[in-house]
Amino acid sequence: MKNLTFSTDKNILSVDVDCYQKGLSVTCVIAGFHERSPRVLLTKFSDSAKWMLPTSLVMKTESPEDAAYRVLKVHNGLQGVNLQQFRLFGDSGRLTSCEINTILNLHGVETIESAKRLVTLGYYALADMSKVVLNADPNMETRWFSLKELPTLFGDDRHIAKAAFTEIRKYGYNRPIERDILPDYFTIDELKNLYEMVFQKDLDARNFERKVLSKGYILKSKGNSDIGKARLFYFNQKNFERRADVIFWY
């Protein structure tokens, strides 16, 4: 996995209001795992007291998915992540009028009279936290937070973040989450710890390695870890593609 870089610009877009779909946005949950705790990447602008998930209005010339990738690249500087759409959030009271105006102003839009309600499509991405590089920016602070210790957030961002992790657990039953989060080479203990963090349950260490190797896409490498000389493993993409019917939960 390539390193994920981070940079910011307070006005992520400054274009005419007619460029945007009225009342439609995207919100991105960047998820990581550290010390047996789910983590989420949040941002806070210098003139705001609240933290927020990366978000953007959707332009008329792009799809919501394109908008989600754009907000990560332009607003957050993140590249090389795999986004998954998971839910539409459209409660009429999900944002206050002040919060809506803040989002509009971040796009260089002073006001939209009809924008009394802002619907958002939720996307999530799994990231190896050690490869997310947070560059210093005077206008916006960026930080990882534990899902259990979130600060004061915009609107329903807390609800969106928790809903994303619920979907990630479902995703783990059908997709190999280690491919997106772990380094290229990892130990069995690191893989086991990851799944225990995601599913919040202990796994049987005696059977775990046997089950892992039976999948056919986790292979032994020729090297060992520097810590304790444990055997290293890696994810084999070609073998994974041959096992389209496999259940990935161990």
UniProtKB/TrEMBL annotation:
<dbReference type="InterPro" id="IPR036388">
    <property type="entry name" value="WH-like_DNA-bd_sf"/>
</dbReference>
<dbReference type="InterPro" id="IPR054105">
    <property type="entry name" value="WHD_NrtR"/>
</dbReference>
<protein>
    <recommendedName>
        <fullName>NrtR DNA-binding winged helix domain-containing protein</fullName>
    </recommendedName>
</protein>
<feature type="domain" description="NrtR DNA-binding winged helix">
    <location>
        <begin position="181"/>
        <end position="225"/>
    </location>
</feature>
<dbReference type="InterPro" id="IPR036390">
    <property type="entry name" value="WH_DNA-bd_sf"/>
</dbReference>
<dbReference type="InterPro" id="IPR015797">
    <property type="entry name" value="NUDIX_hydrolase-like_dom_sf"/>
</dbReference>
<dbReference type="Pfam" id="PF21906">
    <property type="entry name" value="WHD_NrtR"/>
</dbReference>
